[in-house]
Amino acid sequence: MKSKAVILVTGGTGYIGSHTVIELLQSDFEVVIVDNLSNSFAESVDRINMITDKKPVFYKADLCDSSQVSQIFDKHQFDAVIHFAALKAVGESVEKPLFYYRNNLISLLNLLQACKMYKVNQLVFSSSCTVYGQPDCLPVTEDTPVSQPHSPYGNTKKISEEILFDCSHSSDLKVIALRYFNPCGAHPSGLIGEFPAEKPNNLMPVITQAAAGLLKFFEVYGDDYDTPDGSCIRDYIHVTDLARAHVKAIDRLTTGDSKSKFEIFNVGIGQGISVFQMIQTFERLTGIRLNYKISTRRSGDIARIWADTSKAEKELGWKAKFTLDDMINTAWKWQQNLISKPV
Ligand code: NAD
Ligand code: WQD
Predict the structure, then answer these.
(1) Is the pTM of this model over 0.85?
(2) What DSSP letter does each residue of 214-276 carry, written as one string?
(3) Which range of residues forms the domain containing residue 126?
(4) What per-residue confidence (pLDDT) applies to 1?
(5) For position 108, which CATH number holds?
């Protein structure tokens, strides 16, 4: 009998990583997590176990330390890697560019070095729609030109894609870069979700924390954009849908279906939702009136973006299933659980 494929998940105790580990375990993969817990908790592993009845192997280690990376590759024969581990706060990256370049790029280089040494030739990378900037035409396809990034964080994604492109074309490495749009929501069990370390920046945790009374109010950053209701438009995607796209990407790599050494897929729902639509839908579903103020535009924000997801549908066999209502209901359930039982 063929043994199960073993997947190394870096950043696997984090928000998207932990949801992906669940989907991998439920699809019968074996999972090894490495995370330095700089933005997550080891408790995630127990929560994953409660949901799946399976326990991934977990190493607390820093990918910026190449000897720690080698030790882990020494212990396991990996079939593929999913690389989530990175720092992701856009504003912080503007204040501390060196910290971001060092963490996000050195960790990738160490991982690629280990993949080369141990002949692990399949890798899925967490990229971001941030690489498109404000595109001229909507929706954005994978052929939409990448623009000059607005932040060091965004630049680490652009540079990482370039590094992966070069490495894949000079070796046996095959890569799938998934460009996420705006992940939100939580696992339907309410046991795992997004856990912003400090004051949240992203819209969904801002809304749920305001609804829970943890923030007195929040700001809507501008109502004078050239959009139907004046607020910005994004393509929000449920984190479990996003997690499932990774399982499809691993399937594609391990079954040899890739059409080139370096492939890119947009992962969104393919629909734009405005900030005001998000607020109104939250209020309708929960019956809670949100306390917010209209403020000036946030520096670096683009007016609107949403994905063309037809390539992922056709090539990966993946399509988002969760609705905006699901994103809000699960995020709100998670927020309420956090208040009653902090992780
Ligand atoms: P997260 O912070 O919850 O997870 C990232 C994990 O990586 C954390 O658990 C952190 O402790 C770990 N980590 C960071 N540096 C590390 C290092 N040097 N060694 C070991 N572990 C390290 O973030 P997330 O939202 O789950 O994001 C996962 C990936 O997806 C990131 O690469 C992020 O840039 C990308 N992404 C996220 C979003 C989003 O809105 N959440 C959107 C697009 C892309
Ligand atoms: C969404 C909308 C805000 C908070 C960020 C990163 C991007 C990617 C996804 C990683 C915007 C508005 C927000 C608030 C608000 N991450 N907003 N009040 O900016 O689209 O993308 O996360 O790769 O790189 O930049 O997401 O959730 O911060 O904002 O009005 O308190 O909500 O202006 O229009 P964004 P977001």
Answers:
(1) yes
(2) SSS-EEEE-S-SSSTTSS-EE-EEEHHHHHHHHHHHHHHHHTT--SSSEEEEEES-S--EEHH
(3) 6-184+238-268
(4) 46
(5) 3.40.50.720
